[in-house]
TrEMBL record:
Transmembrane segments: none annotated. Residues 454-562 form the NrS-1 polymerase-like helicase domain. This is NrS-1 polymerase-like helicase domain-containing protein. Pfam families: DUF5906. Gene3D superfamilies: P-loop containing nucleotide triphosphate hydrolases. Coiled coil: none annotated. InterPro entries: NrS-1_pol-like_helicase (IPR045455), P-loop_NTPase (IPR027417). The lineage of its organism: Eukaryota, Fungi, Fungi incertae sedis, Blastocladiomycota, Blastocladiomycetes.
Length: 680
């Protein structure tokens, strides 16, 4: 009480807002201090207001137990002694296992030498070891001895514990709206034993006229006494074993008081840049931290200036909004759906309540529409208290536009690869490919032209897509499909959503009719403004089509093209670097190191005069059209080439010309040969 009184004095050096809080504690302590005013403990926690007769004990009035550690240390330093159980959970569970004639090498080693155990099992802290004990489903990749310990606890001991203590099991499994998680069975068993041991420790000290002051979870604070030494703590150890049967040792834990840390505030009075502040917080801890959010909310309540309050309200909106964004991914966080519900989440209120406290729900933004656009900010303008005009799900490119001029020489190795390998040294095709790439970086919509690259295996055609997906666009915007025929034949297509570049890696060798059907569907996917997303177990919905397609193949006859087609641009790669591993390894390192410059150079090119729909009709396109021609069209073409098909047949006023007359046997032989070639 004297220490608390000194801290609240005018010149104590404690900040005014903390001093006010300490004065409240001082007043409350006066009500529960002195004769007949001893602190009372109960199994019921204020936050979990259920009746139970086991588990951890909580103070029913103001107590050091409920204070922040810094406050508790400041008040207790030099006045109290903190006596804690040594390795409480491992010691208790070792004894529990022994009751059922079980043991664990990992528990034994941890109790003998904690540092050696952590090193052997590749664990950073003791909390990692405790997590294995209390987690019903252990993390992957555990050391075999840790797996053995977990199996012993949960596969062997747990069924026997559940049979012996059904009340604890029942309590642990019951849930309510106010309390989602009451703790696991193992946690409640541990806390029940812990409380029994603590009560015996209190009786031990009372019998020796040493006044216990407060329980602190796995320990007890005593009024400072010279008689509390190692010898007395060993007597307490023996007393614990005799009275409870649990082999738990005790040790004094130093109470470290850091005056500087006590004077520090969690947050300054005003936040100048809420977005930057939240970004820094998420960089340190990317997972949702409700305790941190409550600290900010509590800080807002302590601020008097309205502008200061608004700055931290904006902090909470930014923070909660970040986890609203994560709602787009399955299995993450479930918050409020948008007012027009384009996300199709249909999340019930109870689910939201299990994840986020209702008080923080006031700061959760409600988004009117969801978009995917390269050029708009993540969040649209805010209208009203918590309504955001749009949320942009675009994740950003892998490369960054440097916003400066980049010379061609700085990125020449990659551009030369496109020119010499992909475009076989054809300048017109090279310029067109750069325009096609530029559209990928600037237009968040389908460009209407499939880029088809053919050539021998090992020539480097796959390297082009690899650089786009890994270093320029980014993997989140790209999709590889290895089973084109199956994908185009099915109705489910959710993989295409929000993908800027889709690669069909090798088109299958199927019949002409199937090729035609696949090509018809692909043409629509290439040019339509909207796409109907159809996902299993969800109703269908319309989304913006931003899919641009590439095809890589070793085979020329991959699509039923025509000589006048304008939706597929074909390139046959050069063999100049065929199987040249050194060349592609060096080029890969160059692209990785200079991705930002390559991205910037292509973005800055003046290619306004090139229209994607007017691509060069090169020899590669003609060769593929010839390779893909159907039998009837090929036969008619041979008639014309052979000279046996009458010319000027439909031209009035002109004589019909036939350079060479074919009889029916010639035509039949030609048809047979053509059919044989197609079958082969």
């Amino acid at each position: 009480m004297d220490v608390l009184k000194d801290l609240t004095k005018k010149h104590s050096g404690v900040p005014q807002d903390i001093k006010k809080q300490l004065k409240v504690y001082h007043s409350l302590f006066n009500l529960s201090y002195g004769d007949g005013k001893e602190t009372v403990y109960s199994f019921t926690n204020k936050k979990r207001n259920q009746e139970k007769r086991f588990g951890r004990l909580y103070a029913t009035s103001t107590s050091l137990q409920g204070m922040k550690k810094d406050f508790r240390s400041a008040l207790a330093a030099g006045v109290l002694q903190d006596i804690d159980m040594v390795a409480a959970a491992p010691s208790i569970f070792k004894t529990i296992l022994s009751v059922y004639n079980l043991n664990s090498k990992a528990l034994d080693l941890y109790l003998e030498n904690r540092d050696e155990a952590l090193s052997k099992y590749k664990l950073k802290e003791k909390s990692d070891f405790l997590r294995v004990i209390f987690s019903e489903h252990p993390p992957r990749g555990l050391h075999p001895e840790l797996m053995e310990m977990h199996k012993t606890l949960y596969n062997v001991a747990y069924p026997q514990i559940a049979a012996d203590y059904p009340v604890i099991v029942q309590f642990s499994k019951e849930r309510s709206v106010s309390v989602v998680n009451k703790g696991s069975v193992m946690a409640n068993v541990f806390q029940a034993v812990e409380s029994i041991i603590l009560m015996e420790a209190i009786e031990f000290f009372r019998e020796r006229d040493i006044a216990p002051s407060v329980l602190c979870f796995d320990g007890v604070m005593l009024v400072k006494s010279e008689r509390v030494n190692e010898q007395l703590l060993e007597e307490l150890h023996q007393h614990t074993v005799q009275q409870t049967g649990f082999d738990v040792k005790w040790a004094e834990k130093p109470i470290v008081h850091n005056q500087t840390k006590l004077q520090e505030k969690d947050f300054p009075d005003h936040c100048d840049d809420p977005k930057a502040f939240v970004a820094e917080v998420l960089k340190r801890e990317p997972s949702y931290d409700q305790e941190w959010a409550f600290k900010v909310e509590h800080h807002i309540g302590r601020l008097n200036d309205k502008d200061d309050q608004e700055s931290y309200k904006e902090v909470l909106k930014c923070y909660m909004g970040e986890f609203c964004r994560k709602d787009l991914y399955v299995g993450k966080y479930y918050f409020r759906t948008s007012i027009h519900d384009p996300w199709l989440l249909n999340v019930p209120g109870e689910t939201v309540g299990m994840t986020i406290h209702h008080l923080l729900g006031w700061y959760m933004p409600q988004v009117k529409t969801r978009i995917f656009d390269f050029h708009k900010p993540t969040w649209g303008e805010q209208s009203g208290k918590c309504f955001i005009e749009h949320f942009n799900a675009f994740p950003g490119f892998a490369a960054t536009n440097l916003g400066c001029h980049v010379e061609r020489d700085e990125v020449a190795p990659y551009l030369d690869y496109i020119l010499q390998v992909i475009c076989s040294n054809h300048e017109t095709e090279y310029t067109y490919v750069l325009k096609w790439m530029q559209e990928l970086f600037t237009s968040s919509k389908a460009n209407g032209v499939v880029l088809c690259i053919t050539g021998l295996e090992g020539t480097g055609k796959g390297f082009f897509y690899q650089t786009l997906s890994e270093h320029l666009l980014g993997k989140e915007l790209c999709l590889t499909l290895n089973n084109a025929d199956q994908f185009l034949a099915q109705t489910f297509n959710s993989e295409l959503k929000n993908k800027s570049l889709v690669l069909f890696d090798e088109m299958p060798a199927v019949g002409f009719k199937q090729h035609r059907s696949m090509f018809d569907k692909l043409k629509n996917m290439t040019t339509d403004d909207k796409i109907l997303i159809n996902k299993k177990s969800m109703r269908r919905y319309v989304a913006k089509n931003m899919n641009n397609f590439m095809i890589n193949s070793n085979n020329e006859a991959i699509l039923p093209l025509t000589a006048t087609g304008h939706r597929v641009f074909c390139l046959k790669v050069s063999n100049i670097h065929h199987c040249d591993e050194d060349y592609f390894e060096q080029l890969a390192e160059f692209v990785k190191a200079n991705a930002n410059k390559i991205f910037t150079y292509i973005m800055n090119l003046d290619l306004k005069g090139i229209r994607l729909s007017k691509f060069p009709q090169n020899e590669d396109c003609d060769a593929m059209a010839a390779a893909c021609i159907d039998p009837v069209a090929a036969l008619i073409k041979e008639f014309v080439d052979y000279g046996g098909f009458p010319r000027n047949l439909m031209e009035p006023g002109r004589a019909v010309e036939v350079e060479k007359v074919m009889d029916s046997r010639d035509i039949y032989t030609m048809y047979q040969n053509r059919g044989h070639d197609q079958a082969g």
